[in-house]
Amino acid sequence: MHRPIDHTERKDLSPDLTAGWTRRDWIARNGLAAASLATGGLLLAGSASAQAQPKAGGILRISAPANPTTMDPSTGRHGNDHVFLFPVFDTLIDMDMETLMPKPGIAESWSQPDPLTFVLNIRQGVVFHDGTPCDAEAVRFNLERSRTDERSNVKIDLVSVASITVTGANQVTLKLNKADSVIPMTLADRAGMMSSPTSLKKLGKESDRVAVGTGPWKLVSWKDNEKLVYARNAQYWRKGVPLLDGLEMSVITEVNTGLRTVTSGQNDFIYLLAPQQKPVVERGGLQLVQGNTLATWQIYLNYAKAPLDNPKVRLAMCHAVDRVEFNRLTMAGLAQPTVQTLPKGHWAFDPSLEGTYAHDPALARKLLAEAGHPNGLEIECFAANDQRSQQRQEVLIEQYRKSGIRMKFISVPANELGAKFMGEKLGHAALSIYSGRADPSQFFSIMFDKTSFINASRMEGVPGLEAAMLAARSASDMEDRRKAVQKVLRMVNEAALYVPLILQPELDAMTANVKGFKPNILGKPRFEDVYLAS
Amino acid sequence: MSTRSTLRLVLRRLVQMAPVVVLATFVVFALVQLIPGDIAITLAGEGVSEQRIAEIRRLYGLDRPFLLQYAHWLGDAVQGNLSVSLLSGEAVVESISRRLPNTLLIVSLALLISMVVGIPLGIAASVRPGSRLDGFVSVLGSLGIALPGFWLAMLLVAVFAMKLNWFPATGAKSLTEAPLSALHYATLPAIALAASGIAEVARQSRSALLEVMSSQYVRTLHAKGLPQRLVFWKHGLKNVSVTLLTVFGLLVNRMLGATVVIEAVFAIPGMGSLIVNAATGKDYPVVQGVMLTMVVIVIGLNLLIDILYTLFDPRVDAR
Predict the structure, then answer these.
(1) ipTM of this model?
(2) What is the helix (H) or strand (E) element at residue A240, kind and residue range?
(3) Closest CB to B161 among A67, A264, A435
(4) pTM
(5) Which of A153, A157, A224 sits opposite B44 (nearest CB)?
(6) Residues B108-162: pLDDT tens digits?
(7) 3-class SS at A139?
(8) Own/partner pairs for A48-56, CB < 8 Å, 24+ apart?
(9) Is A211 helix (H, G, I), strand (E, B) or coil?
């Protein structure tokens, strides 16, 4: 049953989405793992991490492994963009990076008087970098644009929103066409990033390269595939933030070259390193930062196609993998083996699923025999053709061989993988990474919705899954939601709709003078609290 | 060569240039279609549906027939509009104008190093063929050609940037904004790029000089009593210059191609990295723009070399 909820900043940091839970309760229930969800493995390999008094000023020079696809949050198309967007844009609802719970952002509070109404109370005094006030009308304009503009890539996130109305000088009301508990998380992502309406109206379709938000830094310049320069927003509404005068993000796609710029002192910080680079970081006297993320290495399956249309074959694939060995051989043991994509400590993590998919070649062979493949079978699997992908393929070929599954990998450029496996529906499977979303329902929609491009099967994987996914998305009470999400996780697990392998760790390196940085569960660095020690 | 015939040569080359440019850009456009991947999927972002991908194809004109897409691009290019990158939205002209100077600086510096080091080495080797010095130059030449550019580049970074800290490990500076700094940044990449150039110039100048010095007219000059020094420096070297011009032209073409690898090692925002990123992403306006620029540069340079031929060797005009 729905309980009307009302969240304000004054009560506590957890939203009433948790129906009475406070952040303290939540952490208490989940143990220390919750608090260390993101920072679970913070390692400081170089100098000691003793925190001096935070010091304002200085420019942080960052080596970034990718160019942003756009600087307009609504037209962006890659998870890597967030690192470039966070400095410029605040979101309507912020996200606690340790607990993945929503917290006040540009909206100082929000409430849900009934399941189909979502009311946002906009903070007063927030202005965009060009001086335009970020009021209710600006919020409505942004959300309407994200929901309807033909160039918007976040339309899909706002599909449950039927209308957006200004209902007060600082209030916006969203009418939903169906109950949707993911809305707060949606507004904590790209769809909730507010751009200046003045700038957007002026730019029209040319908005991709100009970013005018309300965030802690202003975008000064973006030289494509070269460098992005940010300068402090002196009028920022959060007091004491940011500490740095500016950021300089150099785009260096080759990570070894990027790391060299940090060891040689040309840059101060690099993120998204490979585990194999850990010894280089340690030898270079840099600080190594390690954290858990939601990004998952997994094998996507086309369960509409024989032989994977047989659940026993899919289960055999899940049991044939030795995740611990896979982690040790491909990630230097730094990752977290997983059978459910969610890390331990996540609010929806289901402990009862741990122990399923135990590595058991004999069981895998038995399942194959029961499925009518006593002599094993061949699976065609697409994978990227880079060097590290080849290593993953070699490990899996050997592991699957022991269970009678002959993995025939088809190595293709990473950008072809989706077109071949999900577009043309070639092959049976694809080995790739899922970049991770804050809410499990977002993961379900992307992976198992029959209209999702990612779902190569284009069908409901198991009867009742769509209804279960809808229930997980609609439940407003936190405990109900947890149960509903775990029900979906169990259905997916039992039907073996994909083969989860490991959760990719976040690995960053920084020079000794960089202080105050914390990794987060999204694996997308934020720099608001970072400062440079003398 | 008279001014009139030079003008005629230039005009003839410019007329020849148009079909070459159209053919080259058409072939590249066709090849881009063969590159694996679907840019519509990339542009549609994460968590997409097939409906959204179809919408993207329509929005970006990717659903039009191949020839129509090419004709549209060519029509715009003729009017000076090279369009914008499909992936980043940056104007192609802006991308090229920002990156071309970085590539040209490295290539120019590498050519300079190749000539300044390679020619004296070739001369030294040809003065006493078969000597220890000649052997040393031969070995050096073989080594320069055999060494992979990326390996030498990484070695240079490890020693001169990481260990000795004499040069920056990566990046580039604008020659107009900070000339000295730009040269400082370009030194290591230029040396890495010049290694094979030095070898080639040294070998070619050595063999050309040996050939010239053993020719009949040199024997005649000796018979007339001209001192060896004058025969070598005045008559020998002048005749080698045509060979060196040819080598120079070929080196420019090759070095422009080789920058792809060198730019990756030194993280230099140049034309090489621009075209690689664009090609792998099927960003055809950028690929076309870069190709057009490169074709114009190569044709323009070949024209310049043809004109220089006529200055060094008047027989060229007669032919």
Answers:
(1) 0.70
(2) none
(3) A264
(4) 0.79
(5) A153
(6) 999 999 999 999 999 888 888 888 888 988 898 888 888 888 899 999 998 998 8
(7) helix
(8) A49/A287, A51/A515, A51/A516, A52/A515, A52/A533, A54/A243, A54/A515, A54/A516, A54/A529, A54/A531, A55/A243, A55/A531, A55/A532, A55/A533, A55/A534, A56/A243, A56/A244, A56/A245, A56/A531
(9) coil
